[in-house]
Structure formats: structure tokens, C-alpha cells
Amino acid sequence: LIQEPHVTQYKVRGLSLKNYDLIYTFTEGITPRTCVLVHRKWGATPTTWNNNKDITSVMVSTKRRDGSMQRTVFTSVYCAGDRITPVPYALEELTAWCQTNQHEIVIGADTNAHSTTWGERYTDGPENVISWVQ
């Protein structure tokens, strides 16, 4: 789950690995800020209905011990520091969809949070993100 990958001419570069798929939304003129690099053995499927420059998600299906299938969504999210709301609406939609469909979700995010904990002069945002995740 990668945020702010190296991008040239609106394409993610430098993450080409044998047997891995690099998944992100390519739109001419828009720089992607998220991507997912996943091994092909997992058979990851992009959740294209909500992917955009700031959110990239894939679904992986695995078999539980009891033989039933478990679907897990892996999501890379970039929360722009200049946004009024800390959490992109597409992520709210995705988590609601996962809850409705009983899918697990794993979120990797760059929240652009400032905190005195790591030396910033002030704290902003993280309490909003944390309360949303709970």
C-alpha cells in the first residue's frame, strides 16, 4: 500500500517487479498519489468503482479454515493536507460497502497529520481520522 509514489508523465514509475501487479488509476493530466503493489499469486482484483488519484483498492479472496471464502479489501489512501475533511468520501463509501458485504478492510494511509508527538508546533487532524476509523 503506497502513498506518493514516484510519478513521471502521470504514470507511477520505479515499482516494476517480476510477478507483481502495480495497480493505480491512470488519468491523463492527473498525478496519482496512491497505488498498490501486489504479488500475482494473490489474484487481487481492483475495486475500480471507487479508485481515483487519492485512493487505490484491491480485493483478495482467501479460503478460511472452515472452507468458506473471506474477502479482504486492501486500500492505499492519500489524505490531502489542504482538504476540509480529513477522510476522502471514497474511503467512507468503501468502508460502508465492506461492512455491508462483510468484507475485511486493511487501510494504509498518509494522513498528513501534524502532531507535537513527532516535533510539530501544533496538532491537527489525527483525532478526526482516528475517531472516524473507530
UniProtKB/TrEMBL annotation:
It comes from the Eukaryota. Transmembrane segments: none annotated. It holds the Pfam family Exo_endo_phos_2. Gene3D superfamilies: Endonuclease/exonuclease/phosphatase (3.60.10.10). Residues 73-124 form the Endonuclease/exonuclease/phosphatase domain. This is Endonuclease/exonuclease/phosphatase domain-containing protein.
